[in-house]
Design brief:
By secondary structure, the chain is an alpha/beta fold. It contains five helices and 15 strands. The radius of gyration is 17 Å and the shape is globular.
């Protein structure tokens, strides 16, 4: 068993085996495909152009971490469920070169992106030509791959966009908050991969939904006894780019 598999939680979803990894990625071993959502590379550059000083190198490290997970999982394809980038980049942003270098080091790895609301056409054209973009949802076996969660009659939806995080109360004044995989009857929402992101306020339905909380080295399912209908997710306001 690989270290990636050891750290992952294996679940059955729509008749398929999926691995949920604590680094906020989902692996589909039958198709050797690694799913990730909401990477938001380039966000610090966008803030910098607005006069907000953010340390550099965040996007480069995010990309290195993501491609390392591809190596560790044995993935032959990286599928991004939207919002790979945060905004249209300037041509001189350093993460663009980092992406090209990482792809060149892995000629057998394919990368595809289902365009999210932040992945504007003008920005897509600046990325390495080896990146395959999908403007619309795509069907892969039992799954429909999209950015924004919505039920689809063609299959079980895998999505991102909401950046879900759950606060598990352990005492009246204390608790643990962490990103979660949120599985509903018709669709799943992956946690955001990018570390420079917010979280969403969502109310799961205890009768139907399942939450899988990510820790530093594990993924655990939140039991029904935790009272999911009484807790609340952290609020994240979706708004236009800063």
């Amino acid at each position: 068993m690989s270290e990636f598999e050891r750290l992952s939680l294996s679940i059955n979803c729509a008749g398929e085996v999926l691995w949920l990894h604590p680094a906020h990625v989902m692996y589909w071993p039958a198709r050797k495909t690694l799913f990730v959502a909401d990477v938001h590379v380039g966000k610090e550059h966008r803030f910098g152009r607005s006069g907000i000083a953010i340390p550099g190198g965040i996007s480069e490290q995010t990309l290195r971490d993501l491609f390392a997970l591809c190596d560790q999982s044995g993935a032959e394809r990286l599928m991004v469920l939207g919002d790979f980038m945060h905004a249209k980049p300037s041509a001189d942003e350093s993460w663009l070169e980092t992406l090209s270098v990482l792809l060149a080091e892995r000629p057998a790895l394919g990368i595809e992106i289902v365009a999210g609301n932040h992945d504007k056409p003008a920005g897509r054209s600046l990325l390495d030509g080896r990146v395959l973009w999908h403007a619309d949802s795509i069907v892969e076996g039992a799954f429909v791959l999209v950015h924004e969660p919505v039920d689809d009659p063609r299959g079980y939806v895998l999505s991102g966009h909401l950046h879900p995080a759950w606060r598990l109360s352990t005492t009246r004044r204390g608790g643990v908050r962490a990103p979660v995989f949120w599985l509903r009857p018709g669709h799943a929402v992956l946690p955001a991969f990018g570390g420079f992101t917010g979280a969403a306020r969502i109310e799961p339905d205890l009768r139907e939904d399942r939450l899988f909380m990510t820790g530093p080295d594990c993924v655990i399912e939140i039991p029904a006894s935790a009272g999911l209908t009484k807790n609340r997710f952290v609020r994240k306001k979706h708004r236009q780019d800063v």
